[in-house]
Design brief:
Largest sheet: 5 strands, mixed
Low-confidence stretches: 1-37
Bound molecules: zinc ion
Number of domains: 1
Order of helices and strands: HHEEHEHEEHEE
CATH class: Alpha Beta
Oligomer: single chain
Number of strands: 7
Helix content: 25-40%
Amino acid sequence: MFFVVQTSHQGELAQLGERLLCTQEVSGSNPLFSTRMDDKALFKIAGEAAEKAYAPFSGYKVGAALLTARGNVYLGANVENSSYGATICAERTAAVKAVTDGEREFIAIAVSAPGSGGPAWPCGICRQFLFEFGGELRVITGTDEDNLEIALLNELLVNGFRLNKDYSGIKNEQ
Ligand SMILES: [Zn+2]
């Protein structure tokens, strides 16, 4: 079952969700097995999410679209702050929305900074933040929909840190 969190693009997202769910069904446990169209669709709505960014200081507006194992898509945008250090990125905004909605398993995240002229790879903090929920996350970015760049989070954050339940540190899950 697909559920859309944000209502402003409900029709389009519902169609996207159906396509993404189909991808999940055929992809099994291999997160790299996905059609180009699905990546483009997720990247497209990430770019639309960037319109909601609050970036009066940098002017660098970023959007993220996070696909969960349940088939939900959570959108995020960067929110800057006068103190600078309190700024939060689009990726973490999307992840916090998903986690506080009960989601724990993530399939893919698309990140877009429309008009920036380049890809928008997650920063170091976001890589570590997302790694908490699994290193197999598929990360999609690019300069535009026809020039996507894709990597697994494990590749972007080698030996990411995560605590065991007994609070002993562990290395990369692989
Ligand atoms: Zn970040």
